[in-house]
Every structure is written in structure tokens, then in C-alpha cells.
Amino acid sequence: MITKDKTTEIFCMADDFCKFFDAMMAKYTLKPTGKRKYHRSSTMSKAEVMLIMILFHTSGYRCFKHFYLEKVCKHLRHLFPNVVSYNRLVELERDVAVPLTLFIKKVLLGKFTGISFVDSTPLRVCKNVRIVFSVLRIGE
Question: pLDDT (tens digit, 9 = 90+) per residue, 64-104?
């Protein structure tokens, strides 16, 4: 698990990024015309939701629901004083998906060196009896 100081540092970076991202989105996106959509404001900021998702991926938990209910709501309450219900958090994740992806790519990742696909699944090339005969013979 990440220390409290590192968590605070990541939150500050995420909060600055969210403010910049929201300003750019407001500047360069089209404004909706006609009917207004209902927008329910949240007690948690986008940076807090992003931080919870980052903490989940660095923790050893496999289930996000258990991580949120057991770790965040009980043990990390001092870092997240305005926690919302799990269902509401899942709704907020939708709004944070694009900013989180850009934040991780632009801020948290190191220098990009390429794309790597790692798969440790062994591939059977031939039957076990034929392994001896399928050796690559160089120089014959």
C-alpha cells in the first residue's frame, strides 16, 4: 500500500490535472443546446475518485467493492472524509474514466519506450514424441 505522504502527493497532482482538464474541456467542447440534462453534484471530487481507483490498482485486492467498503470506508476515512455509497462511486467512475486514463498516461507513467505484450502461456508446437525431431538444425 502507498504511504500517506505519497497518497497526498498523488491527490495534489490529480487535483491540479482535473482543474486543467475541466478548463480545457469547457474551452474546446461544444455546449449542449436545448434541453438541459440533470446533473447531480457529488460530495467527492474527481481527484478523490481517481485516487481511490489508483489505490485499488496498487493494493492487493481483487474486488473493487471489497476494497472500497473495507479499506477506504473504514481505514482510510481520514483521507476521504466525504465518502459516498458504493453505487454512487461506481456512477462517478464513469465521469472519471477519460481524465484518469490521460492522467496516468501523461503524469504517472515514465518515458514511453513502446508497447509490450507479455504472455507466459506455453504453446504446444508438436506432440511430445516429436519434440526430439523438431529441433532446428543449423549448419547441416
Answer: 999 999 999 999 889 888 899 999 999 899 889 999 999 98
d(CA 62, CA 51): 17
Nearest to 41 by CA among 95, 97, 87, 79: 95
Contact 43, 84 (CB under 8 A): yes
Cell (9 digits) for 85: 455509497
Q: What is the pTM of this model?
A: 0.71
Q: Is the pLDDT of residue 132 over 80?
A: no
2 within 8 A of 55, measured Cβ to Cβ: yes
What are the percentages of helix, strand and coil residues in the chain, rounded to 5?
A: 55, 0, 45
In the DSSP assignment, the letter for residue 78 is: T
Candidates 28, 49, 36; CA nearest to 95 is 49
Please answer whether residues 103 and 17 qualify as being in contact, where contact means their C-beta atoms are separated by less than 8 angstroms.
Answer: yes
All three cell numbers of 104: 496516468
- How far apart CA 25 and CA 28 sit, in angstroms, is 5
